[in-house]
From TrEMBL:
Residues 161-455 form the Phage capsid-like C-terminal domain. InterPro entries: Phage_capsid, Phage_capsid-like_C. Keywords: Coiled coil. This is Phage major capsid protein. It comes from the Bacteria. NCBIfam families: major_cap_HK97. Pfam families: Phage_capsid. Residues 32-76 form a coiled coil. It is found in: Virion.
Amino acid sequence: MSKILELKQRRADIAATVQTLAMQESGGTALSAEQLQQLDALKAEFDQLGAQLARLEDAERMIAAAAQQVDTLNAQGAPPAGGVYRASANDLEVLRVAAGLPARPYATPAQPTVKGASVARMAVALIHAQGNYRMAADYADKNGFGADVAAALNGGSPSAGGVLIPANMATEIIELLRPKAVVRRLGARSLPLKNGNLAIPRLKGGASVGYIGADNDIPATEQSFDDLKLSAKKMAALVPISNDLLDNAGISPDVEQVVVGDLTSAVAAREDLAFLRGDGSNNTPKGLRGWALPGNCIAAPAPATVDAAFLQAVEDFLNALILLLEGVDANMVSPGWVMSPRTFRFLEGLRDGKSNKVYPELAQGMLKGYPVGKSTQIPNNLGAGGNESELYFCDFADCFIGEDKALTIDFSKEATYTGADGKLVSAFSKDQTLVRVIAKHDFGPRHVESVAIGTGVKWGK
């Protein structure tokens, strides 16, 4: 309530009290000495409030007189009667303070929403509640995590193996995987699994077409089809998060950004490993290396002195990989390269006899006109000598990821995980919390002819 309204309300209360006393006296009841003293005090306060109210109303009129026309209306000319005006901020505040009014608090801009923050908040609430889903839902509600987060946590049960992340929240996480997972980023298409399965028809054999003469029968023409069959494969990602970081959750969106970043990075890395080099055993997806036809795998030229002959050999090798797709009329909608960082740096640093870079477009992430993705999931220790790598060229628009849009999240403070050095690490001893994310998906190219792989790449070793 404004100060002017408060003063008017107080004056009305005083007037009502004075009227009550006056009616009492007019009814024949004499006023006591205390009531007479109260009446005099109320009259004095009423007059004082009237003077203060007059000053405040004068200040309001001065503020209105000092108002300035809105900039957009200045550009359009004088506004119509009843137009919108605003006063200078400094003038308004000076007049308000001079009139005894409190300064207006400035609005604080809302913090930008972190994409995928709902999943991070679910994890934080679950951890703070020590795995109790009902308490986690209550924590989320009291800390302003959102009604959707509280509702999702409230639907969890200990026997379900975690909390099911709703499809709308899971979709945000899946979208965040695209810039981090090289296979997704280069154009692989995502389709939902129906009851854990998906069949995508593909053309296996072309129709028989030919010319005929007079009175000859038209040859039978029939195309043969096959299916790319995808079935749900369960992937579990363990993400260690510092408890010190979790203590600050809810204070800054940066904490949510870190949690979401760790979750998506872990899932993206494991996806790329499966989608690139998975062998399809033990209920895992088969990657591009497993799908590639033997005839579509070409050995890379051995490293040698960088001279014209070697540069031509590298050029011929890259062209051969491209021709494997062009020669079978691959659609080439989203073709691209995937290589290890070692191979990328070798090609990026190649120079000809005049010290000019052979592939300068690599600085823009392109090679021979096609985008390049780097992935540490392509190892550099393959082959008998433990120093070989691979180079992939594929039409990624012809590759499909069948995935269940629902994710499951759970946590543990006592579990162990394998560290970067291959040794087991206890989350309890490190004062960490392990967050487990379970996703279900599968991967495959619609036409295996759209995959070409260079093997035995020893460049840059």
